[in-house]
Amino acid sequence: MEKLSRLTLAVIFSCFILLSAGVALVVETFTKVPDFTELRGLVRMPIELPGDIKSSRLVGPKSPNWVSLSQVSVQAMGAVVSSEDTSFFSNEGVDYHELREALKKDLESGKFVRGASTITQQVIKNVYLGQEKTLWRKFKEFFWAQKMAKVLSKSEILAFYLNMAEWGPGLYGIKDASRHYFNCSPAELTAKQGAFLAVLLPSPKKYHSYFENKFLRHEYFFF
After folding, report:
1. pLDDT classification of 205: cutoffs 50, 70, 90
2. What is the pTM of this model?
3. 35 by DSSP, 3-state: which?
4. What does the mean pLDDT of the chain come to?
């Protein structure tokens, strides 16, 4: 039975990859792939402020609030990559192993329960596609991430991610997050502080409340 289940999963996964390839051709034919080099300048991305207020902010190397990778502690950077995308420096925009595991969990539960988005896919989603969970959006994200990985360097993608990521209600970018939580610059973040920020990323609004708990802050993070 276990072998049959594994075989079934393998077949479904293979079909998904083939379907993705087919849809990718459709996406490329009927939709305009963004000019990802614009991320080297300044782009406007949608954000959500406290009280469910929809807004937007400018992000990019030309922003006065921009933080380069050289201005972020190695410990914090490593914590984020380890938490969000362990294969970031070796994958081509998507992680097929994580995709397979996510598909397995989704099939077992009968719904979307596990994400498989790489850092590159998260940049695509937040800047260009929004948060709507549809199969069509996922296909576009999957295809565009591979395109972005061929246009931008890993350093460019990671720097953009750190500057655009949400770290709490209305709190965007590692510069503001470092100041808000620890009253320090990104370069001054310790390994434990970097680990805490990495923990926030999957659900920043939810996990933000942990920081407000002084007991947890003292017992687990020693801030």
Report:
1. confident
2. 0.81
3. coil
4. 82
pLDDT in tens, 102-114: 666 655 555 554 4
Query: Domain boundaries in the chain?
Result: 1-31+91-152, 52-84+165-223
Residue 50 to residue 158: CA distance in whole angstroms: 26
Cα–chain-centroid distance for residue 181?
A: 20
Dist. CA 206–CA 158, nearest whole Å: 24
Token pair recorded at residue 18: 């083939």
Cα separation, 208 vs 63, in Å, equals: 26
**Amino acid at residue number 181:** Y
CA distance 77 to 168: 18
DSSP, collapsed to helix, strand or coil, labels residue 108 as: helix
| DSSP codes of every residue in 203-215 | SHHHHHHHHH-HH
Half-sphere exposure of 88 (CA within 13 A, CB side): 25
Question: Using CA atoms, how far apart are residues 167 and 193, in angstroms rounded to an integer?
Answer: 13
Helix, strand, or coil here: 6?
Answer: helix
